[in-house]
Fold this protein.
Amino acid sequence: MNTIEALSMEELRRQFNRTGLRFTPQREAVWRIFEGNPDGLTISQVTVILAPQKIGQATVYRTIRALQDMGYLKWVHEQTGEHRFVVSRSGHSHMLVCRVCSKAVECSDCDLSVLEKLIARQTGFTVEGHHLEFFGLCPDCS
Amino acid sequence: MNTIEALSMEELRRQFNRTGLRFTPQREAVWRIFEGNPDGLTISQVTVILAPQKIGQATVYRTIRALQDMGYLKWVHEQTGEHRFVVSRSGHSHMLVCRVCSKAVECSDCDLSVLEKLIARQTGFTVEGHHLEFFGLCPDCS
DNA sequence: TTATTAAATGATAACATTTTTCATATAGAG
DNA sequence: CTCTATATGAAAAATGTTATCATTTAATAA
Ligand SMILES: [Zn+2]
Ligand SMILES: [Zn+2]
Ligand SMILES: [Zn+2]
Ligand SMILES: [Zn+2]
């Protein structure tokens, strides 16, 4: 399933620095929250969790955007349409979300090349990428 | 490509009534806006367009939600992550969106069954459905 | 280690989006 | 036409997001 190792804090720091960004205690705290919640969290949830530590919402927004840009977070949809952010250990991948318990699982097996070619031929589009989410029931809820 | 005929107003009215909802001039106006904009619109765009006709934003929100629930509107993502709603003429389909001109095309060819089975086997999930969007360049922008 | 400096922080305000409220209007049924 | 539950719009309230800016601090290099 092509899973990548868990990311060490030092590696994450290097990734931030490589992009010209600083790795601050606040950013570390945001990352820890996501690591501790593999099924993902909405921005408002993270904000609430980190409020007691006096981490401002602006910092939460900024950090989540940075982690997204670096590919460490992906989003999936709540039933409400709200975006929930989930740690991703893989470059390109898809998320499976349980509609009952909201469990999220990443799946990096992806061969849409045949479908992309078919669609390109039919529509004349140059297909550059895609976003794919699966909904269903996790093993426990099945 | 399994496209369904354009929906007549009377059919749409029946669909509303079937669901126990009423078909009002406001709801018709919202639908016309979407029909006239095949590449889709965000909620705020619809709100602005219908403001001169004194159609309130609450009505726009309520109507878009209803049309979504009935399957006549699907959403795709702006670069901003904002949702843009697009008329769907097909039960299950995917959208292709041009990253340059935002042109949206529906594509109802979809065989993800092999991939879904593979993922089901690997993860133990019961896969019930998916949301798939393609990004790229339309013929004009290629 | 320390000095330097550009980037990050958080409080607040500004702005934007979405939902609720409720008095009034009206679609649809009979 | 009458009746009634539903829908409407205006406004307010609630939520969500971004911008501002004085202050702090991470990273770099001496
Ligand atoms: Zn979305
Ligand atoms: Zn579950
Ligand atoms: Zn993929
Ligand atoms: Zn285009």
In short: The longest strand of chain B covers residues 126-137.
